[in-house]
Specification:
mainly beta; 45 strands; 818 residues
């Protein structure tokens, strides 16, 4: 099907091979915090004693967060922080940020909300953290699927943390640390090949050009089908050059660039079986996506295989591009350092994405007497978007240490100015949305509807000017510029942090941040021009914690932190529950959603500092959430509460045995969801009417949140050359959303008679790995993911459908480094 958006030909590999041709193959470069070194020339790396010839061996333990705002080592920081280092990413065979974060307990992923169909949408401690993702400490708002080829580590900060990064962050945030020039020259490479046509090549070259200058180039090319799924493919390439001037001196200048280009057929998942209108019975009813045998309301029995794909190869696509240019200036005054970071980022995204069924009742059916409504059908609703985001940031940090008498301070102060702009529109195409019932004879003939049990992604779908038009096919076009929504924002902020060592046993940790956040929405043209809605919000957030150290290698802590999420916080690049709307008067009435977290925990370093363990109990309360009041007006009465505990471990139990993982328990409840409007039918003398009842969400578990989550990755060296490893991952039941149905009796009394819960079941997943160190320069590894070929769902949409995870896959990776 021809499109007039002039998007590049799918899968064109030329730019990728051009970049990779400069450097060949790769392997990860080592970077580890070192313990005190033995006198015999051996080195202590994360609890392992290794010789120079084996220096490339790395552990799973990080000592501290790489950020000016991290004013203390992890052991002395009074909050829960997990660092996923590049060695964990490498050993688990992770190629994307989502894959890397599956090793961290307490993180789940939401599906396809707010213009981000299959991009990164992490939930930390039950809260959507898509808008709290940072690259080298700078907010990264563009909806995208992030790669790992240029990532040094991923830092997961849990708990309310607007003090750290500004708006948002009720449950925590992610900070991605880039690979930048290192002191030593190395040339590294790897290539992977596996089942489902898996092919991946990545490159990492670091060259010390002189005493003062070092250059680094990371590059990647990736192409694969998806195990256990029909038609789906993923293609991408990226390049990330960087140069540092002043490597050994007190003054450094780093210039870095990052480009990622993706092309994929997005996965439309499996529709939920029931809607609120056709779910049999009363009370609370679970609706899960149908995989296996099912019987429709019309009595037809069929089977949905895990491979079933409801999208259209002739229509669906997702293309994205990300470009980021960074300039970082650093000067070391001795005990104090200055860092200035400036970044310009530009990202684009375009997609047509099938949402199967869209709550139309076609799957199970609504009326057995009519073939169009008897079930066994799926409407191929097309969600579309084209968007651009631009970010320009300047951030300055002054950090270091000083003493006031016997009291030691480790401090950071800074300021930020950020401009963000996000523009979005939709593609123009006919998908049967104006036809009722959706799966009419015409819709089936035009492939806008398909069989539940036997869809064909190769159907020859054709676009027409409208749902009933005949004649010549019409190209898919972008909507006119006048139909776009443009959001812009300006952030001015100052912040300060101080880790105060009162005695060797007692440390205080303080932080505060003030933001002035201004946002503006330019709505599609209506009448004479574009309506413009604007807001100005002042945000003050703070954190305080105390650390008690019974021994140098253990700590006990307690902390308190706040966060604030203003209206229009995501600029339309994610699910915006508190958007500014369409009228300035309404926008003026909006309020900032606020959260408060308390946490207490313990940390310890065992086995000579090789293994870190930690545990925490916590509570986060959110108030001022936007909800519908009893009189059908917007009110800020919504509230949520999550209580839970976490256990974590990372590092080396012995010189040969490395582990990474943990467990989280989240008791996440919606304490007040406001009210919901219900239109009830007449019943005898009781006339039809509309009433407002307390929300069916009240008292229920947060959507997209697992109550129990366990992760374990382990690697064991049988010999210096041979190692085996694997992972076990458990996620308990996750809920997508809740819908109620109200009825009235003859006296006119109204009550909720049915609650439909869209949900996906719990699952265990197991991975395996074996690696052979051929010599000091070469190694070979084989990863098997989803070892038991488990059929499970990894993302629950609020309605419509759930995303199904890939089946079993295996790939081998040959790496070298000089």
């Amino acid at each position: 099907m021809a499109r007039s958006d002039n998007r590049p030909t799918a899968g064109s590999p030329a730019p990728a091979f051009l970049a990779l041709g400069c450097i060949g193959f790769i392997a990860s470069a080592p970077a580890l915090a070192q313990d005190a070194q033995p006198a015999n020339g051996e080195k202590r790396l994360g609890g392992m004693t290794v010789t120079d010839s084996a220096i490339d061996e790395e552990g799973y333990k990080a000592e501290r967060v790489e950020s000016p705002k991290a004013v203390a080592p992890l052991l002395d920081t009074p909050r829960s922080i997990v660092v996923v280092d590049k060695q964990v990413i490498k050993d688990t065979g992770s190629a994307t940020l989502v894959e890397a974060l599956r090793t961290v307990p307490g993180i789940t992923f939401g599906a396809a909300e707010g213009g981000n169909p299959i991009g990164d949408r992490p939930f930390i401690r039950g809260f959507d953290s898509q808008g709290s993702t940072y690259l080298d400490g700078v907010r990264d708002i563009g909806a995208q699927s992030r790669e790992v080829f240029a990532i040094e580590q991923v830092q997961v900060v849990r708990g309310s943390d607007s003090t750290l990064g500004g708006r948002g962050g009720a449950g925590g945030s992610l900070n991605i640390v880039s690979k930048l020039p290192q002191e030593e020259t190395f040339f590294a490479g790897s290539g992977s090949y596996g089942t489902d046509d898996y092919k991946r090549v990545t490159g990492d070259v670091n060259v010390r050009l002189s005493d003062k200058v070092a250059f680094r180039l990371n590059a990647m090319w990736h192409d694969q089908d998806v195990a256990g799924r029909d038609a789906i493919y993923q293609k991408r390439w990226g390049v990330a050059p960087s140069v540092t001037i002043g490597m050994d001196g007190p003054t450094k200048l780093t210039l870095a660039y990052y480009h990622l280009d993706t092309d994929e057929l997005p996965d439309s998942g499996i529709p939920y079986f029931y809607t609120i209108g056709n779910a049999p019975g009363t009370g609370t009813i679970y609706s899960e996506p149908l995989v296996g045998t099912g019987t429709t309301i019309g009595g037809v029995t069929g089977k949905v295989d895990r491979s079933t794909f409801y999208g259209l190869k002739s229509r669906d696509f997702r293309d994205s591009k990300t470009d980021q240019a960074t300039i970082r200036f650093e000067h070391d005054f001795g005990t104090v350092k200055l860092r200035n970071t400036a970044r310009y980022g530009h990202s684009t995204q375009g997609y047509i994405y099938t949402q199967p069924d869209d709550q139309q009742g076609n799957v199970f059916g609504t009326n057995a007497a009519n073939p169009a409504t008897a079930g066994g059908l799926v409407w191929r609703r097309a969600n579309t978007r084209y968007s651009e985001t631009d970010v320009l940031t300047g951030q300055s940090d002054l950090y270091g240490t000083f003493e006031t008498g016997s009291i030691k301070h480790s401090f950071a102060i800074g300021g930020e100015y950020t401009y963000e702009r996000a523009s979005r529109g939709a593609y123009v195409l006919a998908t049967g949305s104006t036809i009722s019932p959706r799966c009419s004879t015409l819709s089936l003939a035009r492939y806008n509807c398909t069989s539940l049990f036997d869809p064909n992604p190769n159907d020859p779908w054709i676009n027409y000017s409208n749902d009933t038009a005949t004649g010549v096919a019409t190209p898919i076009t972008r909507g006119a510029p006048s139909t776009r929504t443009i959001n812009t924002s300006y952030t001015k902020a100052v912040y300060a942090f101080d880790s105060i060592t009162l005695t060797e046993q007692l440390i205080l940790n303080l932080g505060a941040r003030f933001d002035r956040f201004t946002s503006k929405s330019e709505l599609p043209v209506s009448g004479g021009g574009r309506p413009t809605i604007s807001r100005h919000d002042s945000l003050f957030n703070w954190q305080a914690g105390a650390v008690f150290k019974p021994t140098p290698n253990t700590s006990l802590y307690a902390s308190y932190a706040t966060s604030a999420t203003p209206p229009n916080s995501l600029l339309g690049e994610g699910q915006e529950s508190n958007g500014v709307g369409t009228v300035q008067a309404t926008a003026d009435l909006l309020k900032v959603e606020k959260s408060k977290s308390i946490e207490a925990g313990a940390k310890a370093e065992l086995f000579g500092g090789g293994l870190s363990i930690n545990g925490a109990v916590f509570q986060t309360k959110t108030s001022n959430a936007r909800a519908t009041g009893a009189n059908n007006t917007v009110e800020y009465i919504g509230s949520k509460r999550v209580r839970g505990f976490e256990l974590g471990f990372n590092g080396n139990i012995t010189d040969a045995w490395s582990v990474f993982g943990g467990y989280s328990y989240l008791d996440a409840k919606i304490t007040d969801g406001g009210f919901t409007s219900f239109s009830v039918a007449a019943n005898g003398p009781a006339a039809a009417k509309t009433v407002f009842l307390p929300s069916v969400n009240n008292g229920r578990q947060f959507p997209q949140t697992a109550k129990h989550n366990f992760t374990l990755w382990s690697d064991y060296k049988i010999t210096p050359a041979l190692s085996i490893g694997g992972g076990a991952f458990y996620v308990s039941r996750v809920f997508g959303g809740y819908t109620g149905l109200a009825t009235q009796n003859t006296a006119g009394d109204v009550a909720i008679s049915k609650i439909l819960v869209r949900t996906i079941p719990s699952y265990w997943r197991f991975d395996a790995r074996a690696a052979w160190k051929i010599n000091d320069n070469f190694d070979l590894a084989v990863n098997v993911q989803n070892l038991t070929d488990k059929t499970y769902f990894n993302q629950a949409y609020t309605a419509h459908y759930a995303s199904i995870a890939p089946g079993r896959s295996a790939f081998a990776t040959l790496s070298f480094k000089y």
